């Protein structure tokens, strides 16, 4: 009898509790948790969940908690499209974050633009918000800096040091292609001359022949544009060149402990643009991002993520996607897709981990060169490059 | 200027060429004894390297122990591969056997992902040989090590196949399995041994290339394919020819990169293979069912 | 032949029934499985009829996809001309390629076609002007039929795929029970004897390889239309491998079994889509299991490892 009473009471409490709890706002997440780009995908999801918990602990958005429904895209555009359709049609999410690679992003974009679903992507390629032959981007937003921004940062730094002749080994994948195009487009206006270019295979194992060929053109700096181990191998090959070595510059996708570990001695002295996350301990107190970055770093370690996925320049993207979403919802005042989109397009000064965002209707990214900082590898650590 | 290019081509080419040579030897051993194209050859290299990596994390390995460990584990891995593929489908059609090696390569890759993760791992250089410089010819330390390992392997393998009884048994099976059986050779043992030896060769290849290029879960396929190209270049007949095929492939690749572009290099290498297969007389492949 | 076609009809009817009741996103998944099934049927022409294991089926899909997308972009109204033209081009290309490769044994043919597939991907990546390189291409114009209008949406793609499978299946059955089919069977069995009986091996196998290429190209066109986006990574070795493996599981030469194998196994694998890291391993295990089971079924009892 007592047992029955307790059960009824418990059920009643539960029901009452549910009545008071607000309906969560559903957000979809598509991350590559298997396949070639799986480390980035899994780390992104974990960061997204971490940030989501943070938002919910502070009371959620518009009085309601956020709920993330995440699916694995297997790094394939077809599966990414399928998962997106599931999220939009079956799970009825309000907006999406992810995916994590450009090919998937393009496949998803076609559908979400037609269905008018806001998507905040964490892909490196610019095609998703470039417009023109890549299709409209009214409902698509990008968190990582544009390739143009990173290239500008590099050029400004090189110009400042008087290094104007560059050679570029780039990968044949979307990221590499973006980089090469941006470098070619911006070179003249920044006073930089491209003396040689080569394509490298992002899955290749040795680039000493390419390094030698480029070195023959006597560049003052070499800008390597690829991600993953190929960048480290290229760094080693360039470091092994005899004679005067050109300054080695990497892309904005490299900064992280993996590069240093893999390239070994070849990493010493290499410079690259990175988000301020990489120099978190030396940021001046006046920096607008310092508080946000410090909190992020602390949370990242506290949740055990630092042990599994040591922090690199990409780590903050998912958190920023959710930050943008939160600010957008707050500005829109209601969980409606069109209102959210309009709000996202006009946010001002959203302080994130990867930079201070100022998106506009024409620029669905909103990060400028001051969101990046040129870092150099010294003694196996990243310090600001002077 | 040309001399510099040539020297560079030779250096880059030899580094990878030695590895291609070892892989080619492995392919040709298996092919010669069982007429099977081993799709999982690259995964033998991958797993050999990964096991070595784990060992090196757990214990301190000197050059001799590293070599010994490599040989032992390579041998075991090769045996396991045989038992799980050809050993299970001895009398199946060749196509099915090939497909089973393809499935095996997927399984091994999958296991590698689960056990070691997807992050590339750095293998230490256990055998530290000095770099070599003679005039314009410059061979980096890694290249010298790879070459030394590869050439030593070829010599030991030739000696084994030529001088020992088991070695001669393997050669007999590859020439005429039925006749060998009639002479008392167990062809199944010989085939298993070929697989095991090719496992050793693949593991040695991992030992030489690991420090240079890191171990990645998807590196097996590319290296295996290049090994196949090299074996075809060498004609599958004699060991030294096959090995030289590997070296030649490495140097040709480097030269193509220097002369044209890295872009074309891949296309040209594969076109070369297709051309070879089409134009050269096909190796004898009468299947002797025993 | 009647039996075979009856089974095919049954299969298509089941699919049609499924398609009628499935909601949007599941229909998309079914479409993707049907695309793979069509590609498996294409490979069946090469392998089941002609005895040639081709690892270039993915490349032919890609050829069809890229050709159709590029041409339709220029001439959006020209579907009726473009689609058959691309299929014909694929047929001729495949037939041409098969001639020098015909004399190669099974394993070497597989490797040669593998390299051809890799060359195709490399070419697509190199000619960025035409193909968008690794960034891929958005499919702007859908193929449109004069009375029915553009083929947009899951249902339209689904019906088109079913139609193509039906058509190709019919052609497959018809060829198999014709003189050409018997000639091919002879080539498969004993090439030398076939030649000495007066069969023109080169031409016969060129036809089967060509048909395989053409059907693959059509499958590629359907994939492009269904996904809306194509990139070289979708048509690489992975696709060819998957196709070959499913065909070998279902049985080369059988018409309906490989198609059913694709739909069933792929749906099964998709169920476990939260496999994460274990995906490749599970793929390999399922396929190895199917291969070994097929072998044991054929040989009667499980063979222990011979001592």
TrEMBL record, chain A:
Keywords: Amino-acid transport, Signal, Transport
Biological process (GO), any one: amino acid transport
Alphabetical list of InterPro entries matching this protein: BCAA_transport, Leu-bd, Leu_Ile_Val-bd, Peripla_BP_I
Leader sequence segment: 1-21
Keyword Transport: yes
Chain ranges of the Leucine-binding protein domain: 24-381
Similarity comment: Belongs to the leucine-binding protein family.
Protein's name in the database: ABC transporter substrate-binding protein
Organism, scientific name: Fundidesulfovibrio putealis
Lineage start: Bacteria, Pseudomonadati, Thermodesulfobacteriota, Desulfovibrionia, Desulfovibrionales
From TrEMBL, chain B:
Record's GO cellular component terms: plasma membrane
Keyword field contains Membrane: yes
A Pfam family recorded for this sequence: BPD_transp_2
InterPro entries: ABC_transp_permease, BCAA_transport_permease
Sequence intervals crossing the membrane: 12-32, 44-61, 67-91, 98-117, 137-161, 190-209
CDD domains linked: TM_PBP1_LivH_like (cd06582)
A GO molecular-function descriptor: transmembrane transporter activity
UniProt keyword list: Amino-acid transport, Cell membrane, Membrane, Transmembrane, Transmembrane helix, Transport
Localization, UniProt: Cell membrane
Topology term for the membrane: Multi-pass membrane protein
Example of a GO biological process term: amino acid transport
Family statement: Belongs to the binding-protein-dependent transport system permease family. LivHM subfamily.
PANTHER family (alphabetical): ABC TRANSPORTER PERMEASE PROTEIN, BRANCHED-CHAIN AMINO ACID TRANSPORT SYSTEM PERMEASE PROTEIN LIVH
Name this protein carries in UniProt: Branched-chain amino acid ABC transporter permease
């Amino acid at each position: 009898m007592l047992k029955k009473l307790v059960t009824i009471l418990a059920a009643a409490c539960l029901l009452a509790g549910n009545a008071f709890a607000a309906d969560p706002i559903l957000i979809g997440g598509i991350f590559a948790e298997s396949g070639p780009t799986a480390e980035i995908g899994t780390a992104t999801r974990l960061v997204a969940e971490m940030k989501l918990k943070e938002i919910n602990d502070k009371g959620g958005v518009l009085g309601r908690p956020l709920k993330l429904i995440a699916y694995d895209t297997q790094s394939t555009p077809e599966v990414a499209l399928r998962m997106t359709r599931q999220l939009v049609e079956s799970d009825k999410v309000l907006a999406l974050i992810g995916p994590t690679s450009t090919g998937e992003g393009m496949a998803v974009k076609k559908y979400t633009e037609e269905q008018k679903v806001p998507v905040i992507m964490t892909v490196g390629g610019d095609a998703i918000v470039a417009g023109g032959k890549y299709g409209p981007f009214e409902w698509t937003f990008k968190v990582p800096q544009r390739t143009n921004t990173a290239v500008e940062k590099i050029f400004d730094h090189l110009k400042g040091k008087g290094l104007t002749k560059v050679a570029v080994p780039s990968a044949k994948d979307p990221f590499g292609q973006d980089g090469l195009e941006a470098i070619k487009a911006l070179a003249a206006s920044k006073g930089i001359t491209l003396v040689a270019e080569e394509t490298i295979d992002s899955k290749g194992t040795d680039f000493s022949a390419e390094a030698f060929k480029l070195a023959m053109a006597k560049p003052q700096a070499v800008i390597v544009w690829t991600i993953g181990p190929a960048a480290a191998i290229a760094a080693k090959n360039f470091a092994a060149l005899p004679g005067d070595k050109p300054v080695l510059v990497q892309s904005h996708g490299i900064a992280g402990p993996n590069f240093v570990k893999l390239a070994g001695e070849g990493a010493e002295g290499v410079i690259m643009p990175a988000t301020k996350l990489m120099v978190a301990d030396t940021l001046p107190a006046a920096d607008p991002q310092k508080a946000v970055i410090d909190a992020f770093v602390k949370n990242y370690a506290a949740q055990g993520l630092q042990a599994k996925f040591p922090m690199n320049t990409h780590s903050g993207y998912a958190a920023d996607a959710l930050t943008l979403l939160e600010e957008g919802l707050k500005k829109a005042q209601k969980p409606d897709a069109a209102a959210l989109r309009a709000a996202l397009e006009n946010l001002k000064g959203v302080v994130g981990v990867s930079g201070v965002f100022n998106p506009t209707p024409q620029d669905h990214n909103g990060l400028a060169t001051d969101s990046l900082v040129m870092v150099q590898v010294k003694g196996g650590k990243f310090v600001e490059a002077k | 200027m040309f001399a510099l290019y040539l020297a560079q081509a030779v250096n880059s080419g030899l580094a990878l060429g030695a590895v291609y040579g070892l892989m080619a030897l492995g392919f040709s051993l298996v092919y010669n004894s069982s007429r099977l194209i081993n799709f999982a050859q690259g995964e033998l290299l991958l797993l050999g390297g990964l096991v070595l990596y784990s060992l090196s994390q757990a214990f301190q390995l000197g050059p001799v122990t590293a070599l010994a460990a490599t040989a032992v584990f390579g041998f075991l891995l090769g045996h396991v591969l045989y038992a799980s593929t050809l050993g299970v489908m001895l009398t199946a059609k060749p196509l099915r056997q090939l497909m089973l090696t393809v499935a095996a390569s997927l399984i091994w890759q999958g296991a590698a992902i689960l056990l070691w993760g997807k992050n590339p791992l750095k293998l230490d250089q256990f055998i530290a040989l000095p770099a070599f410089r003679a005039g314009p010819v410059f061979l980096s330390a890694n290249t010298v090590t790879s070459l030394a390992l590869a050439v030593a392997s070829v010599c030991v393998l030739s000696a084994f196949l030529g001088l020992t009884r088991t070695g001669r048994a393997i050669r007999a099976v590859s020439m005429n399995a039925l006749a060998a059986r009639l002479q008392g050779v167990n062809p199944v043992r010989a085939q298993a041994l070929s697989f095991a030896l090719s496992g050793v060769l693949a593991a040695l290849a991992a030992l030489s290339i690991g420090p240079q290029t890191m171990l990645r879960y998807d590196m097996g396929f590319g290296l295996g394919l290049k090994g196949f190209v090299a074996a075809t270049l060498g004609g599958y007949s004699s060991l030294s020819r096959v090995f030289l095929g590997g070296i030649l492939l490495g140097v040709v690749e480097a030269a193509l990169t220097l002369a044209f572009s890295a872009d074309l290099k891949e296309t040209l290498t594969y076109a070369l293979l297709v051309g070879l297969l089409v134009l050269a007389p096909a190796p004898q492949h009468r299947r002797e069912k025993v | 032949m009647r039996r075979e076609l009856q089974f095919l009809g049954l299969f298509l009817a089941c699919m049609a029934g499924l398609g009628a009741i499935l909601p949007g996103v599941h229909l998309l998944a079914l479409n993707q499985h049907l695309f793979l099934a069509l590609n498996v049927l294409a490979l069946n022409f090469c392998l089941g009829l002609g005895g040639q294991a081709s690892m270039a089926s993915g490349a032919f899909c890609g050829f069809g996809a890229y050709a159709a997308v590029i041409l339709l972009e220029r001439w959006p109204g020209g579907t009726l001309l473009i689609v058959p033209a691309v299929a014909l081009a694929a047929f001729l290309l495949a037939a041409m390629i098969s001639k020098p490769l015909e004399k190669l044994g099974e394993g070497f043919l597989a490797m040669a076609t593998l390299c051809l597939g890799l060359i195709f991907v490399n070419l697509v990546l190199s000619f960025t002007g035409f193909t968008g390189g690794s960034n891929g291409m958005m499919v702007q114009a859908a193929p449109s039929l004069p009375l029915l209008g553009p083929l947009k949406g899951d249902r339209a793609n689904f019906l088109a795929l079913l139609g193509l499978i039906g058509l190709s299946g019919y052609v497959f059955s018809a060829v198999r029970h014709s003189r050409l089919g018997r000639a091919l069977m002879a080539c498969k069995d004993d090439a030398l004897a076939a030649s000495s009986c007066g069969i023109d091996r080169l031409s016969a196998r060129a036809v089967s390889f060509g048909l395989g290429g053409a059907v693959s190209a059509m499958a590629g066109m359907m994939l492009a239309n269904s996904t809306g986006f194509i990139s070289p990574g979708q048509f690489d070795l992975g696709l060819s491998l998957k196709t070959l493996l499913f065909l070998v599981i279902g049985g080369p030469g059988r018409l309906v079994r490989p198609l059913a194998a694709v739909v069933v196994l792929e749906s099964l694998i998709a169920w476990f889509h939260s496999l994460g890291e274990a995906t490749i391993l599970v793929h390999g295990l399922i396929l190895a299991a199917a291969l070994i089971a097929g072998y044991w079924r054929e040989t009667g009892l499980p063979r222990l490892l011979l001592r």
